[in-house]
Design brief:
Helix content is about 40%, strand content about 15%. It has about 675 residues and is an alpha+beta fold. The strands form four sheets. A six-stranded mixed β-sheet has the order 3-4-2-1-5-6, with helices on both faces.
Length: about 675
Amino acid sequence: MQNITPIMSKLSPLMEQYYREKKQYPDALLLFRVGDFYETFAEDAVVVARDLNITLTSRQKDDEGNKIPLAGVPYHALEAYLAKLIRAGHKVAICDQVEDPKLAKGLVKRQITRVVTPGTIIEPAMLEEASNNFLAAVVTEDENEERDGRLGLAFVDVSTGEFLTTEIEGSRLSAELAKFRPAECIASFSLSWECMRLQILDEAAFTLESATASLEKRFGEGWKVRLALADRPLAMRACGAILAYLHSTHFDALGHLRDIRVYSGSEFMVLDDVTLRNLEIIRNIRDRSKRGTLLEYLSRTRTAMGARTLARWIQMPLSSEDAIVKRLDAVEELVNDALKRESLAEEMKGSADLERLMSRICCGSASPKELVVMKSTLSRLPALRAALDQNLAPYLMDLHRRLSPCSEVVDLLEKAIMDDPPTHLRDGGVIKEGYNGEIDQLRALLRDGRGWIARLESAEREKTGIKSLKIAYNNVFGYYLEVSKANLHLVPNDYIRKQTLANAERFITPELKEMESKVLSAQERSVSLEQEIFAAVREQVSSFSQAIAERAQAIAELDVLVAFALAAAESSLVRPEFNREGKLALRAARHPVLDRAMRGGFVPNDVLLDSDQNRLVILTGPNMAGKSTFMRQIALCCIMAQAGSFVPASYASLCLMDRIFPGVEA
């Protein structure tokens, strides 16, 4: 696109302020708050008008007589427009007014408060509810070596607080990215990966010294040992780079980030991007939607947290028999206890996304209604925990312990926030009666003032004999008395004329203006104080971020276990057993997705593979005979089993798989 930055010998103070902020992030679109709009100018305006399909206008001319392009969006609709710009591949810097325009002397102070990129989104409307939104960092052992050496990887989802890291061989990078599907990745070199915005940063952003400083600032003293990073310099550099990048985008409210979890590739079966695609684990081959996938087949989760955890479990099946059996024991107990299974499913139904709510609370962007939704979900914990009484499976017993009530937060929100508050703080009416004495006094004054005005209206009608006289209010004149022209001869001498209309005239009196001043100052102070109190309550809730995150994760895991049990009960799945002889034996096995789609018309198959006489299967037949289906159903049964699910067969004895190679091409 041609450069259309205006050439001007003298910029207006507003435009000087705009270009001063723009210089900080020349690669980003700058949304510049001016009154009730976020404005863009020059090149940015042309791009914004095109990608948002809004009108491109102009303001003052430059020295060559050309008008400066201008495009803006209403501030209250920012989230919807921001989503479109991010989807169009843009980086967006948001410049807000950082002082009250009423108190400003001269030009209102403005500064960039946030830089939004695909990996730093927390707005619900911009996120897929059932998917994580990871920001990734990749560092190499030696920046001068080829990329097939050792790599450090880190993944953070700022919308949920998850933070993971590992060190791998370069050859495994594709498989790791396939597991997490990051929306954005930072690195010092080029990477080829679909559906991911790549930010190439200077090598200085990935130094060990920089990482150490960032990690100590966020996690405090002793973080190396506590987070098991002491002997993992590549992982440290990747984690530190992510924290530094978040700081550079003004994303500094990181209280909701959990402790970094170091994971090993050996913990999970390897499913690279080709395997995930060809087996249609998460997305189908045709239109990349969830329809007809293993994820859809198992989707019985009741919460967004559970939906994300389900996707993770089937993309990253376990490699530890003990861990798999722990899940299977829990699923079996829920399969055998229909009452418990249905009770848990019902209790979780309608639960809020605690992980993403907590991130918005910690970032100071959660609304009053979101806090009420959080209270409602946390209030379910006692009933959810009660439904887990009398468990035998160790996993369910552990979840019972982890789902202890969060009564401090529930009590705080119950006392402080109205049960049905307005969406926006500016509307007032958010803080409950009795929580703050000054708020109660101001509201009493407002009620008395409005009652006084109603009584005054009645008294003035009586005094003047003007039955149609009314007292009203607008933003220009405040409170006024309105008299129709037919009754002007009855107007007393102490009325002060303020405005003449076609059919009426408006007046004020000293008494009315004095009460107006009291009412309006009380209204303004009440709203301002409510905003202060709400911010303090939100800050108090944010101090419980780790406790709430732990309960959110417990709900998510329980949700998936119940979903596995529901699928097993509905589709006659069987618990797999594991052997150590290298044997894979399935009796009457079915392709899970096709079996459901064909409603019982699928013909089951047997398979036996071992390390002795049955080392391979030679499968022949014409095109469309079902050879690919047979191979896929075996692979899907193995993945389901190691994810902790029952499998579609009448009998299943499996050995642990460390990797599946898809022999079927789309």
